[in-house]
Amino acid sequence: MQMVISRRAVRGGFLGAAMAGSLVLGATGCGGGDDEAGKAADEAVGAERLCGGEAVSAEAGKALKVITGSSRFEDDESTVVRAVQALSERFASSATGDGEVCRVYPTTGTSDDDLRITWQLSGSAPVDDPAPKFTVLKMGERALAATDGAYLRFACRSGELPGSAPARIDIGVERGGMPTEPEGDPEALKNAYATVAHSFSLAMAKELDCENDGGLEARPSLDPA
User: Fold this and answer.
1) What is the CA radius of gyration of the chain?
2) I need a surface site. Which of 56, 104, 119, 213 has the fewest CB within 10 A?
């Protein structure tokens, strides 16, 4: 018998309770494993439903499959709308700060296969040189893509954000868990991470009502700068 345990529950500190429940079921011979697996499958969602919906474009959905090997994911309660609210509140008091947009949990793979999408307010335009593993792309103020993550910075002028200076926002897409050697074609992985970063950046820019969508095009540009 195999008991399905949500990876979000494990991260939330419920691993001990789940293990205890598994032991009790094993001792009593209860055959609820198939029911749990069926329930997990029923609750899985497609990429277009992730993070409140409209955050993952069709291209980004395909990119998520390249990265994770899955086209079905555990639903997450975090949303782009909530992330924008947190970012706006932070910007009202400081030009710097960071937070999480949401996490993407594929239904296949291990607990280390989730992706963490983050936002960060950067007080100035990019001036530092990126690490050698990154390829610089022609998106926003700066976009960096590697085989294990991508980052996109855009400038946002919006009535939702106080002051005359634009907010500079970094959106990051990183694999969770312990670092591992990326598997797959390096260029395909870089493009996939960059596509997901663009999709979430554009969703954040639209939700913030940034002027000219923060300078982001409707589709990602994967050409090196």
Assistant:
1) 19
2) 213
Give the model confidence (pLDDT) of 56-80 as tens digits.
999 999 999 999 988 899 877 899 9
H or E element that contains 170:
strand 167-175
In the structure encoding, which two tokens stand for residue 64, read together? Answer: 């998520």
Tell which phi-psi region holds residue 134, choosing left (phi > 0), alpha (psi between -120 and 50) or beta.
beta
pLDDT digits (tens, 9 = 90+) for 68-119: 988 899 877 899 999 999 999 999 888 789 999 999 998 876 556 789 999 9
| Run of H or E including 101 | strand 97-106
Tokens found for residue 6:
């949500």
C-alpha distances in angstroms, 36 versus 30, 182, 194? 12, 31, 35
Helix (H, G, I), strand (E, B) or coil at 169: strand
Residues sharing a CB contact under 8 Å with residue 204, sequence separation 6 or more, in sequence order: 80, 83, 84, 87, 101, 119, 169, 171
Count of residues in the chain: 225
pLDDT per position as a tens digit, 155-195: 999 998 988 789 999 999 998 766 667 777 999 999 999 99
How far is the C-alpha of 141 from the C-alpha of 168, rounded, in Å? 9
Residue 86's CB is within 10 A of a number of other CB atoms, namely: 16
Name the residue with tokens 């909530």.
82
For residue 88, list its beta bridge partners: none
